[in-house]
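Hi everyone,

Forwarding the result from last night's run.
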Amino acid sequence: MEDGYTKICTVSELNENLGKRFLVNDVDIAVFKVNGEVFVLNNTCPHQHTTIIYDGFIEDGCVVCPAHGWMFNLKTGKQPTGARGLDSYPVKIINDEVFALVKAKELKW
């Protein structure tokens, strides 16, 4: 799309309450469908920098990292305490297609 959004998949490819992993613009992302709503988060847990968020389970509007139990809000990516967590990306659904505005992080050397 011309506004910077990238097609990720179709809504029908996503299973309810299960994550799916994608690579977009060199960013590892996790996509979830919960109660019919689609969420896109960075897939790298900040605890040990492992790319396993997509394999987490859904609880109370959060995804729980399967390695150490850290929780991240599906809408904001933040931890329940409000602390920083995962990057959350804007999502658009057009004709069953999922688009997300995923921007690569700029490295500051």
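Strands lie at 6-10, 19-24, 27-34, 37-42, 57-59, 62-64, 71-73, 88-89, 91-94, 97-100.

Cheers,
N.
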